[in-house]
Design goal:
Elements (H helix, E strand, L loop, with lengths): L2 H24 L25 H6 L2 H16 L8 H8 L7 E5 L7 H4 L7 E5 L7 H13 L4 E7 L3 H7 L7 H6 L2 H6 L12 H22 L1 H8 L4 E7 L6 E3 L2
Parallel strand pairs: 1-2, 1-3, 3-4
Antiparallel strand pairs: 4-5
Helix pairs in contact: 10-11
Amino acid sequence: MNSNFKYCYGLAAVLMIIFSCNTVQDKPKEVADTTVAPQAIPMPVKETVITAEQQKALTPDTVLFSLKNGNVRFVNNNVTARDHSSLVRNASFGQFPKAVILSCLDSRIPVEDVFDKGIGDIFVARVAGNIINDDILASMEFGCKVSGAKLIVVLGHSSCGAVKAAIDNVKLGNITTLLNKIRPAVIKSQNYADEKTSKNPVFTDLVSRNNVLNSIEMIKTKSPILKQMLENGEIKIVGAYYDMKTGAVTFTQ
């Protein structure tokens, strides 16, 4: 075998090996399909801002029922997907909320979310310890007498820092004046048999609930306007308590 023939033969063998390798590499491999289907994202609900006619048709009981149902959705992580941008624009023409809710200042209680309500649905007043003062009363009178809200909710909560400070009888600047409005609830809770300190969550819970009841009584006694509306059946005034661990709200009725 001459040298030229050997060269050609060797070159042909190399080309066959290369071709064979490429053929194996190019063959599609059968692999399991690991593609994850995209999760469906719920579209925002095209809600409309409540109108004067819709507000007028409401009763205190239907509003209370709506808040209770909204809280169930919140606890179950099933709140309504809303088109907030649209609601903001629509609400610019006026407001006709269903309820006035007095909440504590606590940042861990997103009131609208807690009741699954949107823009224009509820008035929310916030003050540490959900206490009653002249400005809060005036806001409630505006919300109900002027703007037509059907329900007032005084919303207390567990682990309330203002209540704990009132139990400890803290004295600090203007905070002292505010805590003095919670102190009657501390005094009202003195029949509790166990440790009566802010370190006892059961006692703190008792004071918080009594503080809600005291706030309701102050609304009735210090606002003739709201008292008259209550007696006429135009509004209801209820207490509520937010559990910080579960997000659940319990009502006094």
